[in-house]
Write a structure and sequence with these properties.
0% strand, Rhopdopsin 7-helix transmembrane proteins, mainly alpha, 325 residues, elongated
Length: 325
């Protein structure tokens, strides 16, 4: 029994720490969408580990407690997905179909409470589903080059370890092994909390400051009149250096005028020029790629993806639509 108490203290402290951090993101530093999602992730981890502690200390845990544990388990994946998406989309909001991510957590939660499902199989399905969220998030993070990449890798590594510990619990043959699984998940949570405290950028707040109209005019002139977007591989840092302005000011000016981030604006301006040229020179398909290189794209794949995003059609389809007019 002493071993169970020690494991419960070790795991329980991580639960309290996760709840504390979640509260910080909810009530103190809640200005960014991805940070709110991070707070919910910590809360979901706390619910799942907390359920494990109660289960091996009090095997007769209520169905409500079991359902809360499942809610935490099944919510980690969707919350991680939203965190990654909001980070990549500059803290955009929810979309109409995002509610579908809540279907399994809600159905499983209610099914356990009302005794409509067998908890073991629901937990098994929740663990499998979490894996299906982890895999694409790993893919996006490895291919991402944002300044938060190192933190995101730690986040994914810790959640993957938690997933492994929870999967181990499902196949463990003794209650002691089950308790060890909870302790491993708690250890992963400790590591994640430690890395977060060493990464001050995670606690960054959204800052509000005015953008001088003259700066916006200069940005527009450089992009639309001087056509600086035609420079291959142009990034925000290079553009800010060209304007002799701090990166954050230029980024804010671009966002305020165009309502989009810098890479999206550059791609949009490039595609608009491609469209203008196609309207006046309806040449062969091979000519399209040549135009793409001239306006600043450095690979065909980047051009095709940007064109599809801006026009909802391929270059060939767009050319055909011009011919039909």
């Amino acid at each position: 029994m002493e071993t169970f108490i020690l494991l419960a203290l070790f795991s329980g402290t991580s639960v309290a720490a996760c709840v504390f951090v979640a509260g910080y993101f909810f009530f103190v530093n809640n200005t960014l969408s991805n940070q709110r999602m991070l707070g919910f992730i910590f809360l979901a981890i706390a619910l799942r580990i907390g359920k494990s502690i109660f289960y091996y200390l009090y095997p007769e845990i209520s169905l409500f407690g079991v359902s809360l544990g499942f809610l935490g388990l099944s919510s980690i994946g969707p919350l991680l997905w939203f965190y990654k998406r909001f980070s990549l989309e500059n803290n955009a909001g929810f979309k109409k179909w995002d509610i579908l991510h809540a279907v399994i957590p809600v159905i499983g939660f209610l099914g356990i409470i009302f005794g409509l499902v067998y908890p073991y199989f629901v937990y098994l399905s929740g663990t499998i589903i979490l894996l299906f969220y982890l895999i694409p998030c790993w893919f996006f993070t490895v291919s991402d080059n944002s300044r938060h990449k190192e933190w995101d890798l730690w986040l994914l590594s810790s959640l993957t370890l938690i997933w492994g510990a929870l999967a181990y619990q499902l196949v463990s043959d003794t209650i002691l092994n089950y308790a060890y699984g909870a302790a491993v998940a708690a250890l992963a949570a400790y590591v994640l909390l430690f890395k977060m405290l060493k990464n001050p950028a995670i606690f960054q707040k959204k800052t509000n400051y005015n953008v001088h109209p003259d700066l916006i005019d200069r940005v527009v002139k450089c992009l639309e009149e001087d056509r600086l977007y035609q420079k291959t591989a142009l990034n925000l840092t290079q553009f800010a250096q060209h304007m002799n302005e701090p990166v954050y000011r230029v980024s804010k000016a671009v966002k305020k005028h165009y309502g989009r981030n810098f890479p999206e604006v550059i791609n949009s301006l490039r595609i608009e020029e491609v469209k203008r040229r196609l309207e006046t020179d309806n040449d062969t398909f091979s000519k399209v790629e040549g135009i793409a290189y001239e306006v600043g794209f450095n690979t065909p794949s980047a051009f095709y993806a940007a064109f599809k995003k801006e026009t909802s059609s391929s270059p060939r389809e767009y050319q055909r639509s011009l011919q039909e007019v």
